[in-house]
Design brief:
Number of helices: 4
Structural class: alpha+beta
Helix content: 10-25%
Strand content: 25-35%
Order of helices and strands: HEEEEEEEHHH
Largest sheet: 5 strands, antiparallel
Radius of gyration: 15 Å
Distance between the termini: 32 Å
């Protein structure tokens, strides 16, 4: 396993949309999952998208558990339902260190993805897990949480962000 370099705000790889993983059971994907998990835990973070480590495939690792022992792997994830109810949750990002801000998102989502065995699965998420899933899927689409900040907040953080 290896610690991967996480791209920082301003690096063009963060704006590149990811492509679907063609073979979720490939050895390279399994190795990438292990490396991404190790990188996320070391950072420390609760989620990491492959685009953040300059791999443009739809792969996310997440662990929102307090014990840091419930790794979720989402390959080719998609949100198939989102609640109308919204919540504001303070977010940060491993690619934008030191910046935190409230972001409004749907409070509950249903997600469909593949696991490392290539099996499709679905799960419902709320709270921190819902926020994390949406944040990481945004990364796969070239979107950063700072894009969701209001104009005044962006201006406030301007020197830090760009």
């Amino acid at each position: 396993m290896a610690i991967l370099k996480i791209a920082r705000m301003g690096h063009p790889v963060l704006r590149s949309p990811a492509q679907p993983v063609k073979d979720p059971t490939a050895t390279e994907i399994r190795r990438l999952v292990q490396d991404m998990a190790e990188t996320m835990y070391e950072a420390p973070g609760i989620g990491l998208a492959a685009t953040q480590v300059d791999v443009h495939e739809q792969l996310i690792v997440i662990d929102t558990s307090e014990a840091r022992d419930q790794l979720r792997v989402l390959i080719n994830p998609e949100i198939i339902w989102a609640s109308e109810e919204r919540q504001v949750y303070e977010e940060g990002c491993l690619s934008v260190p030191g910046i935190y801000d409230g972001v409004e998102r749907p409070s509950r989502v249903r997600v469909r993805a593949l696991d490392v065995e290539g099996n499709p699965y679905e799960f419902d998420a709320d709270g921190l897990l819902a926020v994390c899933v949406q944040h990481e899927i945004d990364h796969l689409n070239g979107i950063l949480f700072v894009d969701k900040m209001g104009r005044i907040r962006k201006e406030f953080f301007k020197n830090c962000l760009y």
